Amino acid sequence: MSRVVIKCGGRVVRGSAAAILTLADAGHEVCVVHGAGPQISEEMERFGIPVEFVGGRRVTTAAGLAVVRSSFAAVNRALCAELGPRAVGLFGDEIGLHALQLPELGLVGEPLPSRPKTALEALDSGLIPVVAPLGVGPLNVNADEAAAALAVGLEAERLLFVTDVAGVFRDGVVLSSIEAGEADRLLDDGTFEGGIVPKLRAAIAAARNGVRAEIGETAVVA
Question: For the whole prediction, is pTM greater than 0.85?
Fold first, then answer.
């Protein structure tokens, strides 16, 4: 039996339950971290709060953080309902997902490898912790980065990114694997843009800490 952390993007969270349950039914310990990007942006626009990203992280004011929490809560409830009675909804800031604040982005944190007791107890009981990515503070945390921090802290064997893209593309082709150093170089020279950037950086961090990281069909290896 292995321990797996699955990160579900906000765009695919409603279609992720089957993949999560398949792993859990096969005997794996599964911890889920979900995003809510589209939902948060829609709500922020509805309330007249500017939507701004820097390097894949959402600039977050106090008013924005309230929207982030309510959007996470709605997505968390919906995903737990799809997963059924084994799912346990958790908020990262309440269970001890630690993060370093990035003041230039407002109430935003860069998560640190964390080993929340509540998540471990759920896994030990055969349950599926479903974690909303807020850091102690509270701070808004990128869900990809939160998943990597938990994967390292929980000593997971695998980190799987469930997303709406097939994997990491280069020259129009999905890569079966990419070495962490090469991925770093390509990120630094601007080869990759958009939502793949935080996923790839998170996968690199996990891989370098001994966790097998997979973005769709692409394995990121140390």
Answer: yes
